[in-house]
Amino acid sequence: MRLQPFAGLIADLQGGLAYNFLNVPGKSRTRGDVRAIASYGYGLFPELGSPDRLTLPIKPFANAFLSAGYYSRYENSINYALLRAGLRVAEWKYIALDIYVRGNMVVDAKRDFYNNVAEGSFGIRPMPYFPWGLNILGEFHRGLYWDSGSVGIPGNRYYNTFRLFLVIDQALCF
User: What is the pLDDT of residue 21?
Assistant: First the structure.
């Protein structure tokens, strides 16, 4: 069941089955899964231009996303926040290029998973042909495991990663 009381806010209640690929002694691999999730997102984005020659428009953009959910499979709530701000630095025909900084934070209420992190990132997003809704994101992340709870973190609490995403943002209508 999904409710959207106003633009940007979505509340979901989902039920189904979960299958654990890892065999955990004393627990069934298949069990019911119920999740209740509330999320909110908002953003300010520049209009996509289609100039006949390469332009360097320097158009700012920013967005935020917050999510909080309870997952019965984990008997835990997982919360997420993202903030991003950047600039559209190039446009030509149906092509655009963005650069941005981003911050993420993830925490589970029990603090017994590895997903208790805070990250700062730099990213670049080429849009090779935006009528297709295709985005390629390359991001360098510097992160910190800020609380490991009962799991314990082997090695350094800090990490660096490079992540590459292919995003297809199209409505599929059948």
Answer: 87
Q: What is the rounded distance in angstroms from the CA atom of residue 44 to the CA atom of residue 135?
A: 17
pLDDT band at 64 (very low <50, low <70, confident <90, very high): very high
Confidence of residue 154 (pLDDT cuts 50, 70, 90): low
The label of the residue with tokens 């981003």 reads 102
Beta strand extents in the chain (DSSP E only):
2-6, 9-19, 30-44, 59-71, 76-92, 95-108, 117-127, 134-145, 158-168
Token duo for residue 45: 């984005």
Exposed e or buried b per residue across 7-31, where buried means at least 16 C-beta atoms within 10 angstroms of its C-beta? eeebeeeeeeebeeeeeeeeeeeee
| 121 vs 84: CA distance, rounded Å | 9
Q: Give the start-to-end residue ranges of the domains of the chain.
A: 39-168
- Selection from 98, 13, 14 nearest residue 61 by Cα: 98
Q: Which residues pair with 134 in a beta bridge?
A: 168
Report the pLDDT value the prediction gives residue 171, as an integer from 0 to 100: 77
